[in-house]
From TrEMBL:
Keyword Transit peptide recorded: no
Recorded name of the encoding gene: recG
EC numbers, comma separated: 5.6.2.4
The keyword Cell membrane is annotated on this UniProt entry: no
Class of the enzyme per the UniProt entry, highest EC level: isomerase
Functional description taken from the UniProt entry: Plays a critical role in recombination and DNA repair. Helps process Holliday junction intermediates to mature products by catalyzing branch migration. Has replication fork regression activity, unwinds stalled or blocked replication forks to make a HJ that can be resolved. Has a DNA unwinding activity characteristic of a DNA helicase with 3'-5' polarity.
Protein name listed in UniProt: ATP-dependent DNA helicase RecG
């Protein structure tokens, strides 16, 4: 079956077109599968007499008056006369109020215009009113909508009306032929075309409840299709991988692994020992390992990676360790050099900022095999870096790598396969992440990925106390910082933006740095932000690590992996602007030593509902799994789209908690389809996963 046609135009894209692309809505089928979040009923008007305050109403009227008032603030006030029961404009009135408006508002809402408006009914100063209603001009007697109006998840750059048209067009054009044999489908579900038609444009008599709760047969059809595509693709990658060959890596008795354990300044935790064994058991097998090591911030993943590397190097192979940022790569490099150099292991260091002769030297060492361990950023997988014998690749904070980089990595690993041996051998792959995925999800979702979990923190950690304060309390917080520094602690002070942005009124890092320097005389205050040159960043980090700077004002560049055990205070300004996972990562920079640590979250109100829930979650728990669970719970549709973009949300429609039966059925039929109806299986995968397919494997 040929691939689904795309709608990619030749002209430069308009802003909404670019926004569509950003949401992954490029093919007709993608648009057809972009389902509404909810519906608005514009099939009838609301009888005003029976409407209560707080109801969402849909009304039609004639504009009687339109004026701009300047007090108490600039606003557009429009008075609407609503028709009496006989349909003639009568005495009933309604105020429309706009605090943000454009000339186009005034034009459409000019005196005499007939409009339909929709919004939440309130009782304001002038009587019944709607603030910021949606509205459109209509002709007298214009018919009502025949179906409920879909409201789609969208982004700021993509107006709902534009998206609605694009989805309707995509739905009309998409080839939605029934490719699945009827016997694999759940009982009583409609065809794919019927299901999509109904979900996009339900008639007013469709049970809204069943639609909202996603229990309508149309929903079951969609969810089953999605689960099936996902199971097929996982099963397929699993089978592909089972055919690949990898070097069998075995640690020699008395070899590097044992010597490394002997020089470590600590004992492994039980969890580290268990996970290291799981990895070692994979490495001795002649199939490439494909394992995700997840463990909360500070759980000690680095040493587990070092042990895996030691196994590979002991067996005579090279190991590459990649981190998403230069700061993080440098930290790994230092730690690994400190542990491994005394054992006679030469380590190469490759990042974007290492150029010219230094880079050429490193590349030679990698190519000759003199460097057994190669640490760096994605510079490690560039084409001119050729490994003598790559046996293991370790990717730290793998979810931080972009899709393109993950694909590049896979390509590179495939290229490296077989270098230095007669038969193509793929390197083993170990991915590490501090963003835990709930176990059931991981097992179902990554049929092609083995998961190890570090569920224990190294001993001697004191829990981090988290306090949430309004930004008015900033001065006492600065006092506290002074006290803590006096007691020998070091402090991170995190700000959300680098450059002044008037609109958002955020303190910029430079200004905060100046303020804190002035407020804390005699204390070394450093500044670290993303716009600095890598060498300057490294220099500042080194000063902070050596405790020559006591306070570090930083943007989120420190979010990932920075490890300075003496830092025990973290202040985050504008905490309401950060996502929950990000706050958790940031907080993980403290609580690494033996002293009690504090995390202060400063917020500027008013807080949104989700903002409040995020801060509460932070104050209530430090457990990364619990945070991940709450994050899923709190995330609104907007963020959901963001997550889908990054591939985190692997299921758009089905919900494992609710759809266990559908999942069971999909798992049952997937192997049969793949074996007996391979063309159908491929078409199903392509239809649902399209361009995301490669990425899901990455
Ligand atoms: P993460 O999992 O966040 O990458 P790290 O590997 O950076 O964690 O480890 C956090 C800190 O804990 C480091 O300073 C590391 O040296 C230390 N550490 C790791 N394992 C142990 C252990 N078993 N006992 C004591 N300290 C440990
Ligand atoms: Mg780490």
């Amino acid at each position: 079956m040929p691939p689904e046609p795309t709608t990619a135009p030749a002209k430069p894209l308009s802003a909404p077109q670019r926004a569509l692309q950003k949401l992954g809505l490029t093919r007709d089928i993608d648009l057809a599968l972009h389902l509404p979040l909810r519906y608005e009923d514009e099939t009838r008007l609301t009888p005003l007499l029976s409407a209560h305050e707080g109801d969402t109403v849909h009304l039609e009227g004639i504009v009687r008056e339109s004026r701009i008032e300047l007090r108490p603030r600039r606003q557009l006030i429009v008075k609407l006369a609503l028709p009496d029961d006989d349909g003639e404009p009568g005495l009933q009135g309604l105020i429309l109020r706009f605090v943000n408006f454009y000339p186009s508002h005034q034009k459409t809402l000019a005196v005499g215009a007939r409009v339909r408006v929709r919004g939440e009914l309130r009782h304001g100063f002038f009587g019944r009113e709607i603030v910021h209603p949606s509205f459109r001009a209509v002709a007298p007697g214009e018919p009502m909508a025949q179906a409920l109006t879909p409201v789609y998840p969208t982004s700021a750059q993509l107006p709902q009306a534009y998206l609605r048209k694009a989805v309707a067009a995509g739905l009309a054009r998409a080839r939605l032929d029934e490719i699945l044999p009827p016997q694999v489908l759940p009982r009583g579900v409609p065809t794919l075309r019927e299901a999509l038609q109904l979900l996009h444009h339900p008639t007013p008599d469709t049970g809204l409840q069943a639609l909202q709760e996603r229990e309508h047969p149309a929903w079951l059809r969609i969810k089953f299709e999605e689960l099936l595509a996902q199971q097929l693709s996982q099963l397929q990658s699993q089978r592909e991988r089972a055919r690949l060959r990898a070097p069998a890596l075995k640690a020699a008795p008395g070899g590097l692994v044992e010597r490394l354990l002997a020089v470590l300044p600590f004992q492994l935790t039980g969890a580290q020992r268990r996970v290291a064994e799981e990895i070692a058991a994979d490495l001795v097998r002649p199939q490439p390992m494909h394992r995700l090591l997840q463990g909360d911030v500070g759980s000690g993943k680095t040493v587990v990676a070092a042990l895996a590397a030691a196994v590979a190097m002991d067996a005579g192979w090279q190991c590459a360790l990649m981190a998403p940022t230069e700061i993080l790569a440098e930290q790994h490099f230092r730690k690994l050099v400190q542990w491994l150099q005394p054992l006679g292991i030469e380590t190469a260091w490759l990042t974007g900022s290492r150029k010219g002769k230094a880079r050429a030297e490193m590349i030679d060492k990698v190519a000759s095999g003199a460097a057994k361990l190669v640490v760096g950023t994605h510079a490690v997988i560039q084409d001119d870096v050729v490994f003598a014998r790559l046996g293991l690749a370790v990717i730290d904070e793998q979810h931080r790598f972009g899709v393109a980089q993950r694909l590049e990595l896979r390509r590179k690993l495939a290229l490296e396969a077989g270098r230095g041996s007669s038969q193509p051998l793929e390197p083993h792959l170990l991915m590490m992440s501090a963003t835990p995925i709930p176990r059931t999800l991981a097992m179902t979702y990554f049929a092609d990925l083995d998961v190890s979990t570090l569920d224990e923190l190294p001993p001697g950690r004191t829990p981090i106390v988290t306090r949430v304060f309004s930004a008015d309390r900033r001065d006492p917080v600065i006092e506290r910082v002074r006290d803590e520094v006096g007691k020998g602690s070091q402090v991170y002070w995190v700000v959300p933006l680098i450059e002044e942005s008037e609109a958002l009124d955020l303190r910029n890092a430079t200004e905060t740095h100046e303020q804190l320097s002035a407020a804390l005389p005699g204390i070394g205050v450093g500044l670290l932000h993303g716009r600095m040159k890598p060498a300057d960043k490294a220099a500042v980090m080194a000063e902070f690590t050596a405790n020559r700077l006591q306070v570090l004002v930083a943007t989120t560049v420190i979010e990932v992996g920075v490890d300075v055990p003496n830092a025990s205070v973290m202040v985050i300004e504008h905490a309401e602007r950060f996502g929950l996972a990000q706050l958790h990562q940031l907080r993980g920079r403290v609580g690494r030593g033996a002293v009690a640590s504090v995390c202060v979250l400063l917020y500027t109100g008013p807080l949104s509902q989700t903002g409040r829930e995020r801060l509460r979650a932070m104050a209530e728990t430090t457990d990364g799994f619990e945070i991940a669970r709450r994050d899923l719970e709190i995330r609104g549709p907007g963020e959901f789209m963001g997550a889908r973009q990054s591939g985190d949300a692997l299921l758009r429609f089905a919900d494992l908690a609710q759809d266990g039966d559908l999942l069971a059925q999909a798992r049952e039929v997937a192997p049969w389809l793949l074996d007996e109806q391979p063309a159908i299986a491929q078409a199903q995968i392509r239809r649902w996963l399209g361009g995301r397919m490669e990425f899901l494997k990455a």
